[in-house]
Amino acid sequence: MSDDFDHSSNNGDANHNHKLKKPKLNPFISDLQIRAEFAHHDPDTTRINNGSFGSCPSSVLEAQRKWQLEFLKQPDDFFFNHLKPNILRSRAIVKELINADHVDEVSLVDNATTAAAIVLQQIGWAFMEGKFQKGDVAIMLHYAYGAVKKSIEAYVTRAGGCVIEVELPFPVKSDEEIVTEFRKALLKGKSGGRRVRLAVIDHITSMPSVVIPVKELVKICREGGVDQVFVDAAHSIGCTDVDMKEIGADFYTSNLHKWFFCPPSVAFLYCRKSAVNHSNLHHPVVSQEYGNGLAVESAWIGTRDYSSQLVVPSVIKFIDRFEGGIDGIKKRNHDAVVEMGEMLAKAWGTNLGCPAHMCASMIMVGLPASFGISSDYDCLRLRAHLRNKYKIEVPLYYRPTRDGELDSLTGYARISHQVYNTVDDYHRFRDVINELVRDGFNCDQLPTK
To answer: Where is this region: Disordered (predicted)?
Structure first.
């Protein structure tokens, strides 16, 4: 059985092999074909929030359905003969994509949150077993994803570790601002003779969304004697450059369902073989595979749907239909989101949250100050208003002003661009916001429930 259920033969007769074929005028996917691949999206919704849940084309969904039926047809045969080798094939593709040394360094898990639990679990054990001392430090960015912060609380703080957050500016003007704040936090962590056992670094922060100079921060950690470096890169693969040899982290995770066109939910966790004791790494769901290595443990955590991990070869086929493959898609999305962000900021008289080189396929755009956004709750209510009344789906971010600050912008929209988006999506968002401004809209007018 082939991995994508393509049972066609490549053996043609001699005459067939010598037939002349008309060259394709355009070998790459057309706009019409892209629309067909995402025709299952709600046609009435302006969807400029690929970053939250990703998107999966119809051809990959069809491949997923075939895998699901293959399992249901004969579960025993599927389990004993097909599941593990085909998960291995997906892992091998990821290994090449991220430039890892060995496929054993790559495990497939449900999502980046699961990967974080695996990494932080072994940190917690090190505290409990006396390998780390009470008060030893873990450093994370202030803008770390909420679930990762909670995992650090559950596994590190509870075990006796001290957590220091790197305060980051926003809007951010340069990589140097982030590097400076990270160095300050590292010095604070090492004060009083403490050891910094772990640094958790985002590659692309979620809210606000900014590409972090991850290679430089990892280098600083190495020079500063940090024991382990974990890069939470939930958005990275398919969105920005990912190279394990260049980044040099001990652990690195990214979702495949956000920007890499897999169905929910699947992520990879890279664990550097040369620096990490793999015997201490275990999936948080203990199955019969416990002790057989993280990749094997993760490939079977009990009866469940593994199809999202098996469609990676089909995703590669979809990506290869685009000029430049995944690199072409990344450039296309980056260029488009910057252009649309600049258009929106100009239309609203606001600004972007970072320079163009510090965004990938998402960018923060300031909302009009007249909206009077004064809390996270205001952002949630305004987001719901845009969804329910105008069918626009976009995340919003509240940025409190600081003492003496002249910037009056407290609300930002995080817009995404994926291959299915069109200019009309952003023009519609622009026009709705302009309409609200003309109508004198203020967040105080929104219902409280």
So the answer is: 1-22
